[in-house]
């Protein structure tokens, strides 16, 4: 119960911001789509496509960081998609605003707040991973790298301190973002050393 309460107090405000900002941005996009000939369900589809594309691109950008995927050029595909989605959302928000400086500022607020909320949620979803330590070819051994074992031990100790129970293989796999087999190997190593 304490864990849920702590999570709600920590993440709740960001989720509320994301929901409210997303609804405002969604409404502006839908209204702009309707005014420009996309009526009925199609205006809703346009709004959903733009907002969800931003969410997916932000998540994909984080996934690239987690997996160490390198971009091919000055800008990655997820960043390009995110930038395009933000530009479309912002354009629709500004289209619905009064043509004054304050109208544009208030019109842009839902798109900006939605982007900020999504980036905060994605930032929280990213767990730092230790950099692998290169091992000379002639010293390679079977099993997980010592740095990864140390990091897994810290995660397991933190889990035990927080929950009062040993960490499971699934929980370790999720926290580290590793395969089932590597999580099993790490858990076995932690329990035998």
UniProtKB/TrEMBL annotation:
Recite the UniProt keywords alphabetically.
Membrane, Transmembrane, Transmembrane helix
Q: Name one Pfam family in it.
A: DUF2637
Q: Which InterPro entries match?
A: DUF2637
List the transmembrane segments. Answer: 7-29, 41-58, 79-95, 101-121
Query: Which named protein is this?
Result: Peptidoglycan/LPS O-acetylase OafA/YrhL
The lineage is:
Bacteria, Bacillati, Actinomycetota, Actinomycetes, Streptosporangiales
């Amino acid at each position: 119960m304490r864990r849920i309460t702590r999570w709600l107090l920590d993440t709740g405000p960001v989720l509320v911001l994301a929901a409210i900002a997303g609804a405002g941005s969604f409404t502006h996009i839908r209204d702009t789509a309707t005014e420009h000939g996309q009526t009925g369900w199609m205006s809703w589809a346009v709004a959903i496509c733009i907002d969800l594309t931003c969410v997916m691109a932000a998540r994909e950008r984080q996934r690239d960081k987690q997996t160490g995927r390198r971009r091919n050029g000055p800008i990655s595909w997820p960043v390009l998609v995110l930038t395009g989605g933000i530009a479309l959302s912002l354009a629709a928000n500004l289209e619905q605003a009064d043509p004054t400086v304050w109208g544009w500022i208030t019109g842009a607020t839902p798109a900006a707040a939605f982007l900020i909320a999504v980036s905060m949620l994605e930032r929280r979803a990213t767990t730092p991973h230790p950099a692998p330590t290169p091992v000379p070819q002639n010293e390679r051994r079977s099993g997980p790298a010592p740095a990864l074992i140390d990091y897994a031990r810290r995660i397991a100790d933190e889990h035990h301190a927080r929950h009062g129970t040993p960490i499971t293989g699934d929980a370790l796999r999720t926290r580290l973002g590793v395969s089932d087999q590597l999580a099993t190997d790490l858990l076995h190593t932690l329990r035998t050393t």
